[in-house]
Amino acid sequence: MKVLIDGLFIRSLLCSFFFKLYPEIIEDKRLFIAEPPLYKVDDKKNPFAVNKEDYMNRYVKNVAKDYKIGYSEDEYMDDKRLIEFLSETAAYVDDMLILSQHYKVNARLIELILEDLAIDNKIVMDRLIYNVSSEFPEMYYDEKDSLIKGIVDGVYQSIEISDRLIRKGMPLVELLQKFRHEDAVYPRFVLRNRSTGTLYNSSVLELLKMVKKYQPKIESRFKGLGEAEPEDLEITTMNPNTRSLIRLYISDIENDMKVFQMLRGNSSQDAQARKDMISRYKINRDMLDT
């Protein structure tokens, strides 16, 4: 089920019309949806990405063409794991930079804090300070002010391990926990250049900074067909040779009718059923713009 945003709501109304009055057209497999693109990207050969999944697939394909990603020189991710890792961490660098800008500290320092939290869902200060000072020798913990402070790249900075920081960083902590190797305390990866054989050992942030350039740059995000230029509309929606079509099916007519009645019905029972469905339905935040 896709989130009904923008033109998808109008699409659902049109589908409802055919489903209710002319179901035989759907049963005969003669009803199609012309799928306009969600994004226009900086790709001269194929500048249109149909949806978030299409966009992510390009990103993964671009990375995999030049690099292998793994946990060690002897253990690399298979295609399925690589797709999952890159897709779910696509916004990791930007989210980490937002946190670092908010607290006015180095992004890697933020990541070190979240890495410590990811070990057992709590901060162990001695352990954290050891790792921070190993990477940033001029940083230390001031017990009096409860601050980690010191010099990073010639710039003084300080940060408190507050409940607010932990709350804001928890989605990133969950990613660190998910993709940490079972034999590792901290999430570390190797990145091998396929053409040169050069090997990089890095944290999640360092790795993703290196491959971020492979994410297609989004030049525009279409809210609907009305925002598309006529020449773009011709390529993406009207031209039979280049457009994307989705054939509409009826999988189970009896069950589909029940669902249709719940979604479109006017009775109080239908309204309550819709509320119950909405309260139970969970949406992955990465799918909100798809």
Mind explaining what this structure looks like?
Helix 3 (52-66) packs across helix 4, helix 6 (107-120) packs across helix 8 and helix 11 packs across helix 12. It contains twelve helices and twelve strands. It has two domains: 7-43 and 219-287, Rossmann fold (3-Layer(aba) Sandwich), CATH 3.40.50; 56-214, no CATH class. It has helices spanning 7-21, 23-27, 52-66, 79-88, 92-103, 107-120, 125-135, 163-179, 204-211, 230-238, 253-264, 268-280; strands spanning 32-34, 39-41, 48-49, 67-72, 75-76, 139-142, 147-152, 155-159, 189-193, 199-202, 218-221, 245-247. The protein is globular. Helix content is 49%, strand content 16%. The chain has a four-stranded antiparallel β-sheet with strand order 5-4-9-10. A three-stranded antiparallel β-sheet has the order 3-2-11. Strand 2 and strand 3 (48-49) form a beta hairpin. The mean pLDDT is 88. The protein starts with 6 loop residues before the first helix and ends in a 10-residue tail after the last helix. With 290 residues, it is of the alpha+beta class.
